[in-house]
Design brief:
Endonuclease I-creI, 2 domains, alpha+beta, 4-stranded antiparallel β-sheet, 334 residues, 12 helices
């Protein structure tokens, strides 16, 4: 079981406080291509930026961008992604965020687009990629240097992401087509590679612990939870993940257009989830939460959660996970 030796259940919990925030990041890890696509499905964006530049002939600079933005603690992972793509693009930091960005049409045509054609995106983000490719193709052929080309790019961009800004709607109101450019619908029927799941979970998944009142000897029960949230437009994909693990439920958010795969059954976690991530390891800092989570699973397997000492240790482990780990990591040591 992952992290089995990370904690020893026969030691007092106070001895573990200093190790809760230890980072586990392998700088020598080689990223799997399907992992890169899964991670992009979770964290990547395909956008086209319009900047008004009066010194240009047509007054507009158009820049296509492939980006992945993460908390700065995952900067080493972004550097690995950049390395995976042959060191094209740039990695920058802005306050608490790190951003990998590729905007060169040449690099997009030769490297980024071929990757996602070979290893397709599975979420509806794939629709943005298809439209993005159409725009990059136009720009490769210099269409953006003509007013007709810019108008065509505007109409494609209107179907991407959040659509057009109010400025662009105003500037190009006479050229926006009605109906708008058709946005493709991604029909994912299978998950082609387990590494896609790992990449997606590295971006979207959570490993957490719920402690709640119960009629046990210690007055509380412990529940491990593995969750993957997603916009409701990708409900079918979340259902495919449920089928993949043959367990769990799909919960619909009551206030937002979102659904979440939730797996809490301990036998499923012990017999399927943990072995899966042992075979297809996480590579980002989320691996730290997974290792702590596995340690609690080991404690529970040994019935330590039914004792006060074991419960206290689990509380200590929980206190250093997820958002709490970010607090410990403010100094860069976690």
């Amino acid at each position: 079981m992952g992290g089995a030796s990370y904690y020893q259940i026969n030691y007092p919990s106070k001895q573990f406080k200093s190790s809760l925030s230890t980072l586990h990041y392998d700088i020598n890890v080689q990223l799997n291509p399907s992992w890169v696509t899964g991670f992009t499905d979770a964290e990547g964006t395909f956008t086209v930026v319009f900047d008004k530049v009066n010194t240009r002939k047509l007054n507009w600079r158009i820049q296509p961008k492939f980006q992945i933005s993460l908390h700065v603690r995952d900067l080493p992972l972004l550097l690995k992604v950049q390395q995976f793509f042959g060191n094209i693009g740039s990695v920058s930091e802005s306050e608490s965020m790190a951003i990998y960005s590729v905007s060169s049409v040449k690099d997009l045509v030769k490297t980024i687009i071929p990757h996602f054609l070979k290893y397709p995106l599975l979420t509806q983000k794939g629709a943005d990629f298809i439209l993005f490719k159409q725009i990059v193709d136009l720009m490769e052929n210099k269409a953006h240097l003509t007013i007709e080309g810019i108008n065509q790019i505007i109409n494609i961009k209107a179907a991407m992401n959040l659509g057009l800004s109010e400025l662009l709607k105003s500037e190009f109101k006479d050229f926006i087509l009605t109906p708008l450019w058709e946005r493709p619908i991604i029909q994912t029927e299978i998950i082609p590679d387990p590494y896609w799941i790992t990449g997606f979970v590295d971006g979207e998944g959570t490993f957490d612990i719920k402690i709640y009142s119960s009629k046990t000897n210690v007055g509380f029960a412990v529940q491990l939870r593995f969750r993957i949230p997603q916009h409701e437009r990708d409900t079918k994909l979340i259902e495919l993940l449920l089928e993949y693990f043959s367990s769990g439920s799909v919960e619909k958010h009551t206030s937002y257009p979102a659904v979440t795969l939730v797996i809490t059954k301990f036998t499923t976690i012990s017999d399927k989830i943990i072995p899966f991530f042992e075979s297809y390891p996480l590579v980002g800092v989320k691996k730290n939460d997974y290792l702590d989570w596995c340690s609690v699973a080991r404690l529970m397997r040994n019935k330590a959660h039914l004792t006060q000492e074991g419960l206290n240790l689990i509380r200590t482990i929980k206190s250093g996970m997820n958002s709490c780990r970010l607090c410990f990591g403010a100094s860069g040591k976690s």
